[in-house]
What does this fold into?
Amino acid sequence: MDRAWFERDAPVVAPELLNKLLVAVSPDDPRHDRAVVGRICEVEAYTRDDPASHTFRGETPRNRVMFGRAGHAYVYTSYGIHRCLNVVTGSIGDGQAVLIRAVVPVGGVAIMAERRGHRVRRELVDGPGKLGQAFAVTADHNGMDLLDPASTLRLVDDGTAPPPVPTRGPRVGITKGVQTPWRFRVP
DNA sequence: AAAGAGATGGTCT
DNA sequence: GACCATCTCTTTT
It folds into this structure.
C-alpha cells in the first residue's frame, strides 16, 4: 500500500479501506508470536470542516497527528476508557482521518478472546473500543506509521478488493454532523 | 428485545 | 465544569 493511496480525502479512502487487513503484534508480551489479524469491515470518515471531527476547531496537542502525514495512526481515548484507532488521510495540514470501527477476526482469535474476556466471536471486534481492546491499542501507537512493515501495528493489503457497493449510512456516537453519511461497512 | 445508567478521565471552555 | 467518534451490565417491556 502506497502512501499516496492515503493522501486523498477521508470520505474517498474510507470505503476503499474495507477488506484491508489490520495486523498487531505485541513484542513486549512474554509469550511467543502474539499476532492478531482482522479484516476491516466498518469505518467512518472525519474531515476538517466537519463538526463531528476532532479537528473541527483547529490543531491542539491531542489531534496533532491528524494534521500530520497520511498513513499514520491517530489514537484517542474515548469516554476516558477506550482507545480508538484512526488512519490519517489527506495531505499534511488537512486534519482528516478514517476511524476503524470494526474488523472480522482472521488471526489470533484466541488472543482477542483472552483480551476481550472470552466473548463470542461476533462480539470480539464489532466496535471501535472493542477493537482497541482486542488489538491492545495504546497511546504509544499514536503517530505510528501504519504503512511501515516494521511497525507493531500496521495495515496490509492482501489483494482482496473492497466491496463494490459498501453499505453507507450516518456515523454513530456523535451529536453534530449526524446527517453526513460517512460510515461505510462491508455488506 | 429494548431501554437506561454508570464507569471513567482527558480535553477544551 | 461540561462534554464526549463507547461499552457493559441491569432493568424494564
About this structure: Helices of chain A lie at 3-6, 10-17, 109-115, 128-134. Residues 44, 46, 52-54, 76, 78-82, 84, 86, 99, 101, 127-130, 132-133, 171-175 of chain A lie near DNA strand C (CB under 10 Å from a C1').
